Amino acid sequence: MITSEKLVGSENYLSWSASVELWFMGQGYEDHLITQEADIPEVDRVQWRKIDAQLCSVLWQSVDPGILLHLQAYKTCFKFWTQAKGLYTNDIQRLYKVASAIVHLSQQDLDLSTYIGQIASLKEQFLTVMPLTPDVGAQQTQLDKFFMVLTLIGLRPDLEPIRDQILGSSSVPSLDDVFARLLRILSTQTLPSNSASDSSVLVSQTTSRGGRSGTRGRGQRPHCTYCNKLGHTRDRCYQLHGRPPRTAHMAQSSDSPLPQPPSSSASQTSQASIASVAQPGNASACLTHTSSLGPWILDSGASDHLSGNKDLFSSITTTSDLPTVTLANGSQTVAKGIGLALPLPSLPLTSVLYTPECPFNLISISKITRTLNCSITFSDKFVTLQDRSTGKTIGIGRESQGLYHLTSDSSPAVCISTDVVIRILRYIKSTPGQGVLYENRGHTQVVGYTDADWAGSPTDRRSTSGYCVFIGGNLISWKSKKQDVVARSSAETEYRAMALATCELIWLRHLLQELRFGKDEQMKLICDNQAALHIASNPVFHEMTKHIEVDCHFIREKIASGCVATSFVNSNDQLADIFTKSLRGPRIKYICNKLGAYDVYAPA
User: What range(s) does the Retrovirus-related Pol polyprotein from transposon TNT 1-94-like beta-barrel domain occupy (predicted)?
Assistant: First the structure.
């Protein structure tokens, strides 16, 4: 075992990566983390691949099972290491956390030794993200980065959305870029009204940490001298005294220092919006503007399902112990009942609070994921609710002005953007002369390429099988099909794709025999997954294959009889990639050329 501390995410990536590097250095294999197999001399490549596979299996054991789902597709140490680093490191966020801790560090009630220990720890963390360098240019870059972070730390709370966007960006902006961006926002920002008469509506800005009111100026809000934040005083600071028990708000961010757990996003539009303020012991909700897309709104800030429309309930029960709901204007109301609602046949909602004063219908994301054991996937146009046990889609929501409304459609096809259709039509228009060229290559051998995209579907996590078949070097058959079940591993996905391609090869063999075309020679099936090839050639059932349907294993019989011979191909030369994955332009042109697809109108 490399380390007893398994990788669970960005919060412990630094300590995990340090342990891994130290272990590899101690074993003398640190070059496997930074060197690709293609850079190894041909004579040493077989031994290198063998050692690298053993080391990669050890790497797999050093990460949490939940993390391994995202990384187990990478079968070399270099790819595994590089992908983990890309997923769980963000230098600008790490620097922001360290700098923020330094800025807000004070002894207060700590004893002197603890205070000095914290300073020493922050010093080491700071040198990790801002290492010393003799390069003058690098020093200037680090200095700009540090002052850029200081600028973000000192921003007012109403500018937190901009700070979160900068911290979450993939590239680190320069100090001048941040200054220019803030000044542009200042010149276009419209300050909200401070009138006390409009107490029924609270317009809040969308932030990644939840909606927060912007109706009061900086001087009117209390200031904490301990954490240097607005909205509370020192005697109510959660960082100093801890959070109160029984806080009902389930979507609360764990690092928020404010005494009021913030509600989720309320759309920052010209239409009227309402956002509730969550308080300890009360059910909280983010109430948003109505929409014609559907009566139910998916809300990440609500701790309970909420509806003010009695007609949407299947049944309502009135009890004496109903929670209090706090609305955005500060008023509180006791729920008049609790019952069952059925927005969709596959989506029953239990314990829905009935509040007639609130004409909005909210589905709490935190609650529905627990009660229905479902996962929720967001995209820019729609949201998908999927049953974790079966993988079946149980609900679809469409986006409107930043909010997701549950629709009655059960298929994500309704959410396909017109941009996709336009892009397809544009491709067809630009390639009128595209076609497959057939020529005599002097043989009639049947060769099939097979590939699969493991868990590629964002809605049900099913895989896609694809194959293409050549006769005499000419493409004559191809197919792309979604698999019927959710595969547990990439090897199983590739194995199912091989079985599908084998069926096509056998059918073509019989057809050629009836036509008396070509020689009766062995057919070749090419795959880029070593594990699937081993499963196909190994007659012994084991843990990886015992759950696969028996009819998939007929491929072993065909291999044993000599009808089909399997062969491995590098992923870079896998021609079936184009039928299973979304590829870039140069890759598409390369594969199309190998498939024999040419443009007859292209200049010679």
Answer: 296-369
